[in-house]
Design a protein that fits this description.
The chain is α+β, with helices and mostly antiparallel strands. It has one domain: 2-Layer Sandwich (Creatine Kinase, Chain A, domain 2), CATH 3.30.590. The chain contains eight helices and six strands. It has a four-stranded mixed sheet, with helices on one face. β2 and β3 form a beta hairpin.
Length: 226
């Protein structure tokens, strides 16, 4: 049919993009420790802290989960992609969504929804895990930082109310600056080191410069015949 497949986050303007959501649960001695009956969404305190860690470090994580210039064309309001860092039950406007259908001790999990397939999955998943474990270690309460839980569609909130939420970085430079300022948690256990982080930042900023320095076809349409 003359069609091709792509994993680009946003290959077509004004259509929903391609995400790569990371679903996760944490087991200890064969038991899912994220489940506890009776709490919010039947989540344990460890699950809440894990979520807190991911959201607290969320802006830095985007440097690994969304590392391309095209990534940020997907992370826009109105296309079921997150733009604010918070969590909620069955909430497709949330950065972390807790599936309502996964309600048994064996299934209880949540998904981090910012990511896309331009990421290196080894770096992205390692960074997410370290952020979550840092949340457990430091008992990071997401409510303390206005990370939720919020179960309603934040895109319907007033601008004033939305302003109280932490935004996902809007482009590569903002994401890399966030990583530069917040990466101590990635050094735990020598999983990452300073050289790797610095190299990643340098590479991605160079990619950003390569794209932004070149004239865009839409610019030709707007300005060529002025």
């Amino acid at each position: 049919y003359g069609l091709t497949a792509t994993f680009m986050p946003k290959p077509v303007f004004n259509h929903a993009g391609n995400g790569m959501h990371f679903h996760m649960m944490l087991h200890k001695n064969g038991k899912n420790i994220f489940y506890k009956k009776g709490g919010y969404a039947d989540l344990s305190k460890e699950a809440i802290w894990f979520i807190g860690g991911i959201l607290y470090h969320g802006r830095a994580l985007v440097a690994f989960t969304n590392p391309s210039t095209n990534s940020f064309k997907r992370l826009l309001p109105g296309f079921e992609a997150p733009v604010k860092l918070f969590y909620g039950l069955a909430n497709r406007s949330a950065a972390i969504r807790i599936p309502k259908y996964a309600n048994s001790p064996e299934e209880k999990r949540f998904e981090f929804r910012t990511g896309d397939a331009t990421c290196n999955p080894y770096l992205a998943m390692s960074a997410i895990m370290l952020a979550g474990l840092d949340g457990i270690k430091n008992k990071i309460d997401p409510a303390k930082y206005n990370f939720g839980p919020f179960d309603d569609n934040v895109f319907a909130w007033s601008e004033e109310k939305k302003a109280g939420l932490v935004s996902i970085p809007a482009d590569i430079p903002e994401a890399m600056q966030a990583l530069k300022e917040d990466h101590e948690f990635l050094l735990a256990g020598d999983v990452f080191n300073e050289e790797l982080i610095e190299s990643h930042i340098k590479l991605k900023l160079a990619e950003h410069e390569a794209v932004t320095a070149r004239p865009h076809p839409h610019e030709m349409m707007l300005y060529y015949n002025l």
